[in-house]
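User: Please go through the entry that follows and flag anything odd:
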Amino acid sequence: MSVPATPRGAAAPPGQPRKAATAAWIGSALEYYDFFIYGSAAALIFPEVFFDESDPATATLLSLATFGVAYAARPVGALVLGHVGDRLGRKKIMVFTLMLMGLSTFLIGCLPTRDQVGTLAPVLLVLCRVLQGISAAGEQASANSMTLEHAPPHRRGFFTSFTLSGTQGGQLLATLVFIPVAALPEEQLLSWGWRVPFWLSVAVAVAGWVIRRKLDETPAFARQAAQEGVVKMPLLVLVREHWADVLRVIAGALVASVSTIFTVWALAYATSDAVGMSRTAMLWVGALANVVALAAIPLWATLSDRIGRRPVFLIGAAGSAVTMFLYLWAVSTGSYPLVFLTGVLCFGVVYSAANGVWPAFYGEMFATRVRLSGVAIGTQIGFAAAGFAVTFAARIAGPDGDDWSAVALFTAALCVPPVIAALSARETHRVPTEALGERTVRPTARPDQVTV
Protein backbone atom coordinates (compact mmCIF):
# COMPACT_ATOMS: atom_id res chain seq x y z
CA MET A 1 0.00 0.00 0.00
CA SER A 2 1.39 3.39 -0.97
CA VAL A 3 0.63 6.18 1.48
CA PRO A 4 2.24 9.63 1.33
CA ALA A 5 4.42 10.45 4.29
CA THR A 6 3.15 13.09 6.68
CA PRO A 7 5.42 14.75 9.24
CA ARG A 8 4.70 13.88 12.84
CA GLY A 9 2.23 16.31 14.30
CA ALA A 10 1.27 17.81 10.95
CA ALA A 11 -2.25 19.14 10.71
CA ALA A 12 -4.81 18.14 8.14
CA PRO A 13 -4.82 20.21 4.93
CA PRO A 14 -7.04 23.32 5.07
CA GLY A 15 -10.68 22.43 4.61
CA GLN A 16 -10.21 18.70 5.20
CA PRO A 17 -11.65 18.66 8.77
CA ARG A 18 -14.85 20.32 7.52
CA LYS A 19 -14.95 18.07 4.44
CA ALA A 20 -14.48 14.94 6.55
CA ALA A 21 -17.17 16.04 9.01
CA THR A 22 -19.59 16.78 6.16
CA ALA A 23 -18.92 13.40 4.56
CA ALA A 24 -19.48 11.71 7.91
CA TRP A 25 -22.71 13.65 8.51
CA ILE A 26 -24.26 12.99 5.12
CA GLY A 27 -23.09 9.39 4.91
CA SER A 28 -24.34 8.56 8.41
CA ALA A 29 -27.64 10.31 7.73
CA LEU A 30 -28.17 8.32 4.55
CA GLU A 31 -27.07 5.03 6.08
CA TYR A 32 -29.06 5.38 9.28
CA TYR A 33 -32.10 6.44 7.34
CA ASP A 34 -32.05 2.86 6.09
CA PHE A 35 -31.43 1.47 9.55
CA PHE A 36 -34.21 3.41 11.26
CA ILE A 37 -36.94 2.86 8.69
CA TYR A 38 -36.55 -0.79 9.60
CA GLY A 39 -37.21 0.07 13.24
CA SER A 40 -40.42 1.93 12.38
CA ALA A 41 -41.56 -0.88 10.11
CA ALA A 42 -40.73 -3.54 12.73
CA ALA A 43 -42.96 -1.76 15.25
CA LEU A 44 -45.84 -0.82 12.94
CA ILE A 45 -45.91 -3.01 9.81
CA PHE A 46 -43.91 -6.23 9.91
CA PRO A 47 -45.98 -8.06 12.58
CA GLU A 48 -48.85 -8.17 10.06
CA VAL A 49 -46.79 -8.63 6.87
CA PHE A 50 -44.20 -11.23 7.84
CA PHE A 51 -45.61 -12.99 10.91
CA ASP A 52 -48.74 -14.82 12.07
CA GLU A 53 -51.58 -12.29 12.47
CA SER A 54 -53.62 -14.71 14.58
CA ASP A 55 -51.36 -14.03 17.58
CA PRO A 56 -50.60 -10.27 17.56
CA ALA A 57 -48.50 -10.28 20.74
CA THR A 58 -46.18 -13.03 19.49
CA ALA A 59 -46.03 -11.46 16.03
CA THR A 60 -44.90 -8.15 17.55
CA LEU A 61 -42.33 -9.93 19.74
CA LEU A 62 -40.86 -11.77 16.73
CA SER A 63 -40.84 -8.63 14.62
CA LEU A 64 -38.95 -6.71 17.31
CA ALA A 65 -36.54 -9.65 17.58
CA THR A 66 -35.62 -9.21 13.90
CA PHE A 67 -34.72 -5.62 14.77
CA GLY A 68 -32.21 -7.02 17.25
CA VAL A 69 -30.77 -9.52 14.75
CA ALA A 70 -28.79 -6.76 13.05
CA TYR A 71 -27.23 -5.89 16.39
CA ALA A 72 -26.19 -9.53 16.86
CA ALA A 73 -24.44 -9.38 13.46
CA ARG A 74 -22.65 -6.16 14.35
CA PRO A 75 -19.81 -7.66 16.45
CA VAL A 76 -18.92 -10.03 13.59
CA GLY A 77 -18.94 -7.14 11.14
CA ALA A 78 -16.84 -5.08 13.55
CA LEU A 79 -14.15 -7.76 13.75
CA VAL A 80 -13.83 -7.96 9.97
CA LEU A 81 -14.30 -4.32 9.03
CA GLY A 82 -12.23 -3.03 11.95
CA HIS A 83 -9.32 -5.23 10.86
CA VAL A 84 -9.60 -4.05 7.24
CA GLY A 85 -9.98 -0.39 8.23
CA ASP A 86 -6.86 -0.39 10.40
CA ARG A 87 -4.88 -2.04 7.61
CA LEU A 88 -6.21 -0.38 4.45
CA GLY A 89 -7.59 2.91 5.72
CA ARG A 90 -10.80 4.56 6.87
CA LYS A 91 -12.02 5.76 3.47
CA LYS A 92 -12.45 2.28 1.91
CA ILE A 93 -14.65 1.12 4.78
CA MET A 94 -16.78 4.27 4.64
CA VAL A 95 -17.61 3.69 0.98
CA PHE A 96 -18.17 -0.08 1.32
CA THR A 97 -20.52 0.12 4.31
CA LEU A 98 -22.74 2.70 2.67
CA MET A 99 -23.11 0.67 -0.51
CA LEU A 100 -23.90 -2.51 1.45
CA MET A 101 -26.56 -0.77 3.53
CA GLY A 102 -28.24 0.69 0.45
CA LEU A 103 -28.39 -2.69 -1.28
CA SER A 104 -29.69 -4.68 1.70
CA THR A 105 -32.38 -2.09 2.48
CA PHE A 106 -33.58 -1.98 -1.12
CA LEU A 107 -33.88 -5.77 -1.08
CA ILE A 108 -36.10 -5.63 2.03
CA GLY A 109 -38.54 -3.53 0.02
CA CYS A 110 -38.65 -6.28 -2.62
CA LEU A 111 -39.30 -9.22 -0.27
CA PRO A 112 -42.39 -11.42 -0.64
CA THR A 113 -44.79 -11.50 2.32
CA ARG A 114 -45.79 -14.40 4.55
CA ASP A 115 -49.06 -14.80 2.64
CA GLN A 116 -47.06 -15.24 -0.58
CA VAL A 117 -44.22 -17.61 0.43
CA GLY A 118 -44.95 -18.67 4.00
CA THR A 119 -42.10 -18.97 6.50
CA LEU A 120 -39.51 -18.20 3.83
CA ALA A 121 -40.55 -14.54 4.09
CA PRO A 122 -39.25 -13.91 7.66
CA VAL A 123 -36.11 -15.95 6.86
CA LEU A 124 -35.28 -13.64 3.94
CA LEU A 125 -36.08 -10.64 6.14
CA VAL A 126 -33.57 -11.81 8.74
CA LEU A 127 -30.86 -12.35 6.10
CA CYS A 128 -31.26 -8.80 4.82
CA ARG A 129 -31.27 -7.52 8.38
CA VAL A 130 -27.94 -9.29 9.02
CA LEU A 131 -26.42 -7.44 6.05
CA GLN A 132 -27.69 -4.17 7.50
CA GLY A 133 -26.01 -5.00 10.81
CA ILE A 134 -22.67 -5.81 9.20
CA SER A 135 -22.78 -2.51 7.34
CA ALA A 136 -23.65 -0.46 10.42
CA ALA A 137 -20.80 -2.13 12.33
CA GLY A 138 -18.19 -0.42 10.19
CA GLU A 139 -20.00 2.82 9.36
CA GLN A 140 -19.82 4.76 12.60
CA ALA A 141 -16.35 3.52 13.61
CA SER A 142 -14.82 4.47 10.25
CA ALA A 143 -16.61 7.82 10.12
CA ASN A 144 -15.60 8.58 13.72
CA SER A 145 -11.97 7.70 13.04
CA MET A 146 -11.97 9.77 9.86
CA THR A 147 -13.34 12.91 11.52
CA LEU A 148 -11.29 12.57 14.73
CA GLU A 149 -8.01 12.16 12.84
CA HIS A 150 -8.76 15.12 10.54
CA ALA A 151 -9.99 17.43 13.32
CA PRO A 152 -7.93 20.14 15.07
CA PRO A 153 -6.81 18.70 18.45
CA HIS A 154 -8.81 21.21 20.50
CA ARG A 155 -12.05 20.62 18.53
CA ARG A 156 -12.19 16.85 18.19
CA GLY A 157 -15.42 16.66 20.18
CA PHE A 158 -17.19 19.11 17.89
CA PHE A 159 -16.05 17.57 14.61
CA THR A 160 -16.64 13.93 15.62
CA SER A 161 -20.15 14.83 16.76
CA PHE A 162 -21.12 15.30 13.11
CA THR A 163 -21.27 11.51 12.78
CA LEU A 164 -23.97 11.32 15.44
CA SER A 165 -25.74 14.43 14.16
CA GLY A 166 -25.91 12.58 10.85
CA THR A 167 -27.36 9.56 12.60
CA GLN A 168 -30.09 11.72 14.13
CA GLY A 169 -30.65 13.35 10.74
CA GLY A 170 -31.14 9.92 9.22
CA GLN A 171 -33.60 8.99 11.93
CA LEU A 172 -35.47 12.24 11.37
CA LEU A 173 -35.61 11.62 7.63
CA ALA A 174 -36.82 8.05 8.20
CA THR A 175 -39.55 9.31 10.52
CA LEU A 176 -40.69 12.01 8.11
CA VAL A 177 -40.85 9.49 5.26
CA PHE A 178 -42.91 7.09 7.38
CA ILE A 179 -45.46 9.71 8.48
CA PRO A 180 -47.31 9.87 5.12
CA VAL A 181 -46.81 6.14 4.62
CA ALA A 182 -48.39 5.34 8.01
CA ALA A 183 -51.34 7.58 7.09
CA LEU A 184 -52.23 5.43 4.06
CA PRO A 185 -55.37 3.28 4.19
CA GLU A 186 -54.62 -0.05 5.85
CA GLU A 187 -54.92 -2.09 2.64
CA GLN A 188 -52.52 0.13 0.70
CA LEU A 189 -50.12 0.40 3.63
CA LEU A 190 -49.76 -3.37 4.01
CA SER A 191 -49.66 -4.16 0.29
CA TRP A 192 -47.23 -1.65 -1.23
CA GLY A 193 -46.99 1.49 0.91
CA TRP A 194 -44.50 0.13 3.43
CA ARG A 195 -42.10 -0.80 0.60
CA VAL A 196 -41.61 2.75 -0.70
CA PRO A 197 -39.22 3.98 2.05
CA PHE A 198 -37.02 0.91 1.50
CA TRP A 199 -36.92 1.40 -2.27
CA LEU A 200 -35.76 4.99 -1.77
CA SER A 201 -32.49 3.59 -0.42
CA VAL A 202 -31.25 3.33 -4.01
CA ALA A 203 -30.32 6.98 -3.51
CA VAL A 204 -28.09 5.93 -0.61
CA ALA A 205 -25.67 4.01 -2.80
CA VAL A 206 -25.43 6.78 -5.40
CA ALA A 207 -25.09 9.63 -2.90
CA GLY A 208 -22.60 7.70 -0.78
CA TRP A 209 -20.32 7.00 -3.72
CA VAL A 210 -20.38 10.63 -4.86
CA ILE A 211 -19.80 12.08 -1.39
CA ARG A 212 -17.10 9.81 -0.03
CA ARG A 213 -14.97 8.73 -2.99
CA LYS A 214 -13.08 12.06 -3.10
CA LEU A 215 -12.29 12.23 0.61
CA ASP A 216 -8.58 12.12 1.54
CA GLU A 217 -7.19 9.53 3.94
CA THR A 218 -6.43 10.95 7.40
CA PRO A 219 -3.00 12.46 8.26
CA ALA A 220 -2.77 10.23 11.34
CA PHE A 221 -3.29 7.02 9.37
CA ALA A 222 -0.97 8.16 6.57
CA ARG A 223 1.70 9.03 9.15
CA GLN A 224 1.31 5.68 10.89
CA ALA A 225 1.54 3.74 7.61
CA ALA A 226 4.53 5.72 6.32
CA GLN A 227 6.62 5.80 9.49
CA GLU A 228 5.81 2.57 11.33
CA GLY A 229 3.69 0.56 8.90
CA VAL A 230 0.21 -0.77 9.54
CA VAL A 231 -0.43 -3.46 12.15
CA LYS A 232 -0.78 -6.93 10.63
CA MET A 233 -3.14 -8.15 13.34
CA PRO A 234 -4.91 -5.17 14.95
CA LEU A 235 -7.03 -7.45 17.13
CA LEU A 236 -3.98 -8.92 18.87
CA VAL A 237 -2.59 -5.45 19.62
CA LEU A 238 -6.01 -4.36 20.82
CA VAL A 239 -6.32 -7.28 23.24
CA ARG A 240 -2.76 -6.88 24.49
CA GLU A 241 -2.64 -3.10 24.96
CA HIS A 242 -6.23 -1.79 25.12
CA TRP A 243 -8.37 -4.57 26.62
CA ALA A 244 -9.54 -2.36 29.51
CA ASP A 245 -10.60 0.39 27.13
CA VAL A 246 -12.50 -2.09 24.96
CA LEU A 247 -14.43 -3.17 28.06
CA ARG A 248 -15.14 0.47 28.89
CA VAL A 249 -16.50 1.10 25.40
CA ILE A 250 -18.68 -2.02 25.59
CA ALA A 251 -20.12 -0.85 28.90
CA GLY A 252 -20.51 2.73 27.67
CA ALA A 253 -22.27 1.63 24.47
CA LEU A 254 -25.11 0.14 26.53
CA VAL A 255 -26.46 3.69 26.81
CA ALA A 256 -27.75 3.14 23.25
CA SER A 257 -30.54 1.11 24.89
CA VAL A 258 -32.20 4.46 25.58
CA SER A 259 -32.37 5.06 21.83
CA THR A 260 -33.72 1.62 20.90
CA ILE A 261 -36.33 1.62 23.67
CA PHE A 262 -37.44 5.15 22.74
CA THR A 263 -37.47 4.53 18.99
CA VAL A 264 -38.98 1.06 18.81
CA TRP A 265 -40.55 -0.28 22.01
CA ALA A 266 -42.17 2.98 23.14
CA LEU A 267 -43.59 3.44 19.64
CA ALA A 268 -45.11 -0.05 19.66
CA TYR A 269 -46.45 0.46 23.21
CA ALA A 270 -47.97 3.86 22.51
CA THR A 271 -49.83 2.64 19.41
CA SER A 272 -51.00 -0.61 21.02
CA ASP A 273 -54.54 -1.19 22.29
CA ALA A 274 -53.28 -0.58 25.84
CA VAL A 275 -52.68 3.13 25.14
CA GLY A 276 -54.27 3.77 21.75
CA MET A 277 -52.24 6.76 20.54
CA SER A 278 -52.08 7.35 16.79
CA ARG A 279 -49.15 6.23 14.64
CA THR A 280 -48.79 9.62 13.03
CA ALA A 281 -48.68 11.51 16.34
CA MET A 282 -46.02 9.21 17.79
CA LEU A 283 -43.91 9.49 14.66
CA TRP A 284 -44.07 13.27 15.07
CA VAL A 285 -42.76 12.89 18.64
CA GLY A 286 -39.69 11.15 17.25
CA ALA A 287 -39.33 13.76 14.51
CA LEU A 288 -39.44 16.69 16.93
CA ALA A 289 -37.04 15.00 19.37
CA ASN A 290 -34.58 14.45 16.54
CA VAL A 291 -34.81 18.07 15.42
CA VAL A 292 -33.84 19.13 18.94
CA ALA A 293 -31.08 16.51 19.02
CA LEU A 294 -29.59 17.92 15.80
CA ALA A 295 -28.98 21.18 17.67
CA ALA A 296 -28.13 19.66 21.06
CA ILE A 297 -25.47 17.17 19.91
CA PRO A 298 -22.89 19.70 18.62
CA LEU A 299 -23.54 21.94 21.64
CA TRP A 300 -22.83 19.12 24.09
CA ALA A 301 -19.79 18.10 22.03
CA THR A 302 -18.44 21.66 22.05
CA LEU A 303 -18.89 21.75 25.82
CA SER A 304 -16.84 18.53 26.06
CA ASP A 305 -13.99 20.29 24.21
CA ARG A 306 -13.96 22.78 27.06
CA ILE A 307 -14.65 20.79 30.23
CA GLY A 308 -13.87 17.21 29.14
CA ARG A 309 -15.61 14.14 27.77
CA ARG A 310 -16.34 12.40 31.07
CA PRO A 311 -18.64 14.97 32.75
CA VAL A 312 -20.74 15.47 29.61
CA PHE A 313 -21.10 11.72 29.03
CA LEU A 314 -22.10 11.25 32.67
CA ILE A 315 -24.84 13.87 32.34
CA GLY A 316 -26.26 11.98 29.36
CA ALA A 317 -26.05 8.49 30.84
CA ALA A 318 -27.35 9.26 34.34
CA GLY A 319 -29.90 11.79 33.10
CA SER A 320 -31.34 9.34 30.56
CA ALA A 321 -32.06 6.82 33.32
CA VAL A 322 -34.31 9.41 34.99
CA THR A 323 -35.95 10.98 31.95
CA MET A 324 -36.92 7.60 30.42
CA PHE A 325 -39.14 7.08 33.47
CA LEU A 326 -40.82 10.39 32.75
CA TYR A 327 -41.27 9.63 29.07
CA LEU A 328 -42.74 6.14 29.48
CA TRP A 329 -45.01 7.39 32.25
CA ALA A 330 -46.22 10.15 29.93
CA VAL A 331 -46.93 7.60 27.20
CA SER A 332 -48.96 5.51 29.68
CA THR A 333 -51.21 8.51 30.36
CA GLY A 334 -51.98 8.98 26.65
CA SER A 335 -51.49 12.74 27.02
CA TYR A 336 -50.04 14.13 23.79
CA PRO A 337 -48.61 17.34 25.38
CA LEU A 338 -46.83 15.32 28.08
CA VAL A 339 -45.51 12.81 25.56
CA PHE A 340 -44.12 15.55 23.31
CA LEU A 341 -42.55 17.45 26.22
CA THR A 342 -40.91 14.46 27.92
CA GLY A 343 -39.89 12.88 24.60
CA VAL A 344 -37.99 16.00 23.58
CA LEU A 345 -36.42 16.32 27.04
CA CYS A 346 -35.33 12.67 27.21
CA PHE A 347 -34.20 11.92 23.68
CA GLY A 348 -33.64 15.37 22.22
CA VAL A 349 -31.76 17.01 25.10
CA VAL A 350 -30.48 14.67 27.82
CA TYR A 351 -29.60 11.56 25.78
CA SER A 352 -27.83 13.81 23.26
CA ALA A 353 -25.16 14.57 25.87
CA ALA A 354 -23.93 10.98 25.85
CA ASN A 355 -24.76 10.45 22.21
CA GLY A 356 -22.89 13.54 21.02
CA VAL A 357 -19.70 13.02 22.99
CA TRP A 358 -19.09 9.27 22.67
CA PRO A 359 -17.45 9.43 19.20
CA ALA A 360 -14.59 11.51 20.63
CA PHE A 361 -14.69 9.86 24.07
CA TYR A 362 -14.30 6.32 22.72
CA GLY A 363 -12.00 7.17 19.80
CA GLU A 364 -9.53 9.00 22.03
CA MET A 365 -9.01 5.87 24.13
CA PHE A 366 -7.12 4.13 21.30
CA ALA A 367 -3.92 4.64 19.34
CA THR A 368 -4.19 5.28 15.60
CA ARG A 369 -3.00 1.80 14.65
CA VAL A 370 -6.00 0.12 16.33
CA ARG A 371 -8.53 2.96 16.65
CA LEU A 372 -11.06 1.72 14.11
CA SER A 373 -10.93 -1.84 15.49
CA GLY A 374 -11.22 -0.66 19.08
CA VAL A 375 -14.19 1.61 18.49
CA ALA A 376 -15.94 -0.83 16.13
CA ILE A 377 -15.60 -3.92 18.33
CA GLY A 378 -16.33 -2.15 21.61
CA THR A 379 -19.36 -0.24 20.39
CA GLN A 380 -20.88 -3.06 18.38
CA ILE A 381 -20.79 -5.56 21.24
CA GLY A 382 -22.48 -2.95 23.43
CA PHE A 383 -24.92 -2.01 20.68
CA ALA A 384 -25.78 -5.69 20.20
CA ALA A 385 -27.05 -5.81 23.78
CA ALA A 386 -28.86 -2.50 23.23
CA GLY A 387 -30.55 -3.86 20.11
CA PHE A 388 -31.95 -6.86 21.92
CA ALA A 389 -33.06 -4.60 24.78
CA VAL A 390 -36.19 -4.03 22.68
CA THR A 391 -36.97 -7.75 22.67
CA PHE A 392 -36.39 -8.04 26.43
CA ALA A 393 -38.54 -4.97 26.99
CA ALA A 394 -41.39 -6.58 25.06
CA ARG A 395 -41.11 -9.62 27.34
CA ILE A 396 -40.71 -7.63 30.54
CA ALA A 397 -43.80 -5.55 29.71
CA GLY A 398 -45.96 -8.62 30.43
CA PRO A 399 -48.56 -10.52 28.41
CA ASP A 400 -50.53 -7.34 27.68
CA GLY A 401 -47.41 -5.32 26.90
CA ASP A 402 -48.41 -2.48 29.23
CA ASP A 403 -46.00 -2.70 32.20
CA TRP A 404 -44.10 0.47 31.32
CA SER A 405 -42.56 0.86 34.78
CA ALA A 406 -40.74 -2.48 34.46
CA VAL A 407 -39.35 -1.36 31.10
CA ALA A 408 -38.28 1.98 32.61
CA LEU A 409 -36.44 0.20 35.44
CA PHE A 410 -34.81 -2.12 32.91
CA THR A 411 -33.63 0.86 30.84
CA ALA A 412 -32.31 2.64 33.93
CA ALA A 413 -30.34 -0.47 34.90
CA LEU A 414 -28.72 -0.49 31.46
CA CYS A 415 -27.53 3.09 32.11
CA VAL A 416 -25.47 2.01 35.15
CA PRO A 417 -22.56 0.35 33.27
CA PRO A 418 -22.03 3.49 31.10
CA VAL A 419 -21.79 5.59 34.26
CA ILE A 420 -19.20 3.21 35.73
CA ALA A 421 -17.26 3.18 32.45
CA ALA A 422 -17.08 6.99 32.35
CA LEU A 423 -16.02 7.26 36.00
CA SER A 424 -13.15 4.81 35.42
CA ALA A 425 -11.93 6.31 32.12
CA ARG A 426 -9.07 8.77 31.56
CA GLU A 427 -9.83 12.33 30.50
CA THR A 428 -8.34 12.84 27.03
CA HIS A 429 -9.78 16.06 25.60
CA ARG A 430 -6.42 17.88 25.92
CA VAL A 431 -4.16 15.08 24.67
CA PRO A 432 -2.67 15.73 21.19
CA THR A 433 -4.04 13.48 18.46
CA GLU A 434 -0.74 11.72 17.72
CA ALA A 435 -0.34 10.87 21.42
CA LEU A 436 -3.80 9.36 21.98
CA GLY A 437 -3.73 5.82 23.31
CA GLU A 438 -0.17 6.12 24.63
CA ARG A 439 0.00 5.07 28.27
CA THR A 440 2.90 7.38 29.17
CA VAL A 441 1.26 10.59 27.93
CA ARG A 442 0.27 13.26 30.43
CA PRO A 443 -2.39 15.75 29.20
CA THR A 444 -1.22 19.36 29.12
CA ALA A 445 -2.98 22.69 29.38
CA ARG A 446 -2.58 23.36 25.68
CA PRO A 447 -3.80 20.92 23.01
CA ASP A 448 -0.65 21.37 20.89
CA GLN A 449 1.76 20.35 23.66
CA VAL A 450 2.50 16.99 25.27
CA THR A 451 4.80 15.83 28.00
CA VAL A 452 6.12 12.28 27.79
The chain has a mean pLDDT of 84. The radius of gyration is 21 Å. The CA atoms of residues 126 and 294 lie 31 Å apart. The first helix runs from residue 16 to 44.
